[in-house]
Write a structure and sequence with these properties.
By secondary structure, the chain is α+β, with helices and mostly antiparallel strands. It has helices at about 1-15, 35-50, 80-90, 105-130, 135-165, 195-245; strands at about 25-35, 55-60, 70-75, 95-105, 170-175. It has two domains: about 1-175, no CATH class; about 195-245. The chain contains six helices and five strands. The N and C termini lie far apart (about 150 Å).
C-alpha cells in the first residue's frame, strides 16, 4: 500500500503545473524612539492600512525615568513587505534589522500531491463500503478510511500553515524608548555613592600615610647632616665664647 501511495504521489507531482516559488519572508527590526506610545499607535495604524494585524504585544518599563521597551509581532501581506519595512524605519532610529527568507516550494508541492492522493484514496474506500461484503471486510475498510481521513486532516493543516506563512510576512519588532537625561531629574548619579565615598576616604588616609612616610624618610636621611651642622655650630660657638672672654 505504501509503495502504491508513493507512486501515486510521484505521478501527482508530475501532473502539477509549474507554480511560483513559495517563499516565507520575515523580518526583525530594533527601533529607537522618543515616544513609545505614539509609535506603537502609528505601527498599529500602518498594519491596518496594509491589511495586516498585531498578533502579539509585550511592553516593559526598563528604568526609573519611565523608558519603555516593547516587543510586537505584526503580520502583513507579503506583497506589501517592502512598503511596510520602509514605513517602520520612518518611525524612529533603526538600531539593527534582519530579513530572512525560506523557500518551501518543494514541501508545498509534496504536501499538495499527498493531499490529492489521499482524497482519491478516500473516494475509493467510500465506493468499496457501498458494496456488499462480509463484516470483517467492512470493518477493515472503515479502519483504513479512518486512517486516511486522519492523514487528510494533518496534510490539510500543514497546507493551510504553509499558505498562511507564504501569504503573510511576520515582523518581529523591538521598540525601545530613549529618554534624554536632560529632560528629567535623574537619581542615577547617586547610585553607588556610599561605596565611592568609602573609596575616597580610604584613598585620602592612604595619601596621608604616604606623606608621613616620605617625611620620616626625609628626616631620617637628614639626621646625619643635622648632627654635623650641630657640631660645627657648637665649635664655632665655643671658639667665639673663648675669644670674647680673653678680650674681657
Amino acid at each position: 500500500t505504501q509503495n502504491v501511495v508513493k507512486q501515486s504521489v510521484e505521478e501527482s507531482k508530475s501532473a502539477i503545473k509549474p507554480m511560483e516559488r513559495k517563499l516565507i519572508k520575515n523580518a526583525e527590526l530594533h527601533l529607537l524612539v522618543d515616544d513609545y506610545n505614539s509609535v506603537v499607535e502609528a505601527l498599529k495604524s500602518k498594519a491596518s492600512a496594509f491589511e495586516g494585524y498585531i498578533t502579539n504585544e509585550t511592553v516593559n518599563v526598563i528604568d526609573a525615568r519611565g523608558s519603555k521597551r516593547g516587543y510586537l509581532e505584526v503580520k502583513v501581506p507579503q506583497l506589501r513587505f517592502a512598503e511596510f519595512f520602509a514605513g517602520v524605519q520612518d518611525l524612529g532610529k533603526l538600531k539593527n534589522s534582519h530579513i530572512y527568507t525560506q523557500d518551501v516550494t518543494e514541501e508545498y508541492i509534496d504536501v499538495e500531491s499527498r493531499l490529492n492522493v489521499m482524497r482519491t484514496k478516500e473516494e475509493r474506500l467510500l465506493d468499496i463500503l457501498t458494496q456488499s461484503g462480509e463484516l470483517s471486510d467492512v470493518l477493515a475498510v472503515e479502519n483504513e478510511l479512518a486512517n486516511t481521513r486522519s492523514q487528510l486532516e494533518s496534510l490539510e493543516g500543514r497546507l493551510r500553515y504553509l499558505s498562511n506563512q507564504t501569504e503573510f510576512s511576520t515582523f518581529n519588532l523591538t521598540i525601545e524608548q530613549v529618554v534624554a537625561s536632560t529632560t528629567q531629574v535623574s537619581t542615577g548619579g547617586l547610585q553607588g555613592v556610599g561605596l565611592r565615598a568609602k573609596e575616597a576616604f580610604i584613598k585620602a588616609i592612604n595619601n596621608i600615610f604616604v606623606g608621613v612616610g616620605i617625611a620620616l624618610v626625609f628626616i631620617s636621611a637628614a639626621i646625619p647632616y643635622l648632627v654635623v651642622v650641630a657640631i660645627v655650630v657648637g665649635l664655632i660657638w665655643g671658639i667665639w665664647c673663648g675669644v670674647k672672654r680673653r678680650k674681657s
